[in-house]
Amino acid sequence: MKKILEAPIIVVIKAVSIAAASIIFTIIIPGIVAAGGNVFYESGMLTKLPSPKRAEIEHFRTLKADQLQQIALLDQQLSLPARDKLPPDAIMALATLRELLQKQTDNETPPVAVAPFYLNPQMLLWPAIYSCLAWIAFLLPPSNTEGITPRKALWWIGLGFGIYAFYEWPLWFRNFILTSEGRNLYAYPNYDIHPASFFTQEIVVLGFCLLLARIWQTWSDSLTSIKSKTSSEGPVEKALNGDMLDQLTAALNHWQVTSIILALGFTFFTRFFWEIADRFNDQRYFLTALLAHTLWGLTWILLSLPLAYRWHRWNRARHNALCELATSSVEKYPNRKEALDILKSLSPTSMVASLITGIAAFVSFTGPFLRHLVGQ
Known about the structure:
single chain; mainly alpha; 2 domains; 2 strands
């Protein structure tokens, strides 16, 4: 009984430890670096901007303050004591003007957006994706995978750097090759704002890519292991063997959990970049958002492949068994009718729940991209 109770407690401790390590690595350390470079708060960030951009922000804020002052004056004129002295036409005109000014104020966006470290959406983005990926990679690996060997470690690191190059090249172009044309966002980890925060961010991104590489490698090994297993049983005996259906049911349950965790991590991750492209009209982030979404899709496909193969193998075994029973004599299978009834009734216990999980994961996957298309 103690061992039964001990496993969940250990899992919870490991999960909390992973989350705590993610916060330290992606928030506390980068925050200390940002504070040292005076880019932790907006006031410090403004000093890092080019003079023309600072002037644009100050001009925008002055106009905004004037608009708010005009709205306040209109509110005074439309208040009950003052409104009684005005004719109805004048009240209607003032109310219309007030509504137009309010809409203009609400819809205006600054010409330049400034994103310091403090209250930046990345404060939640990175620890969330790190925790989710690490939980999948180290707490929820497939049961048929083996430990990592030196050769696998080299492949893991090489794959991680490959994912890193695939994902980060638009950022390198933005920081070192492209000009500032079309640039509407100045963020604390930009190289021209604070080089130390830039390199800290690159280390964080590399860690994210290594976690992805670990998941890709582990689930690829799991698929290879499943494919390598063969059975010498006959088609009917193979289909009626409960181990295959039990393994499929377990794979369905495992896929549900990992798909939900993956969606939770990537939903916030990809949404951040799509919102930058939409809210600040900085289309230079479009490629990064698209690549992040691509990594999500590829990872989900890899998580699904072992399940898909088990599902295909089980359906093939069931089909072969039904064909064997349908074409064989009663002498060979005296209990043919009972076997046919059993085979027709066999089904993974979590099939409906898995279908719901798949639909929910697909909706969360396509949601940010569709919102971007609708917003165009």
